Structure prediction request, 219 residues.
Amino acid sequence: MWLLVVANALAVISAAWAGAFSDSTPRWSIPPTTDPVKAVTAIAIRQYPGWFDDKLTPVEMSERAVDRPLYTTCGPVSAWAVELLKEAGFTARLVMVMTLDKWNATDNGHTFVEVRQRGGWVAYDIHRKVRWTDDSGRGLSMVEWIDRVPSQHYRIVPLLAPVDGGALRRQDARYAQVPFVRAGRWLWFPSQGRRTASILKYSSGYRVLPRDRWLARFS
Prediction:
């Protein structure tokens, strides 16, 4: 959940990925599929929560993933996943949520991905190995999920093994307050009134838009 690390590393990650296929070193990629759930699940299998591989570029992650799983926090695996999904033919983007509760040294938010499906965005949490749906099973976008967190009127669907839904909902209640979307070099969030200035100070990689303009651009 290193939000500052995620924001400051995005430019480096993008530059590194631009030269991804300049040599013949074997690299792991998503097995052929048109199903975004299968694609995201394949990535989730190749990652465990940890820190060891956080400083690798996406190219280096793909090279290491040929022989072993990666050990990363949520930001690096999400950045890697977006590039893998794009290479596999999906439209994907990195998204993030940030708490407005009291900040601490390590646990102020969470990073995951969204994939474009049927004209809308659907969120997938590769690090925590889950996705979110409504009662009918329709996948939720980040914005839809945030709107449902206070009422807890959403389903947590594991990508792999069963999860502790109660613990995840407690995390959700802390994290799911301010949405961010990566576009270019920046992580964009909607204005948060008096809290906007402090959020901008959190990282030089953050940018703000009025809420209506943010929704029009990113929803």
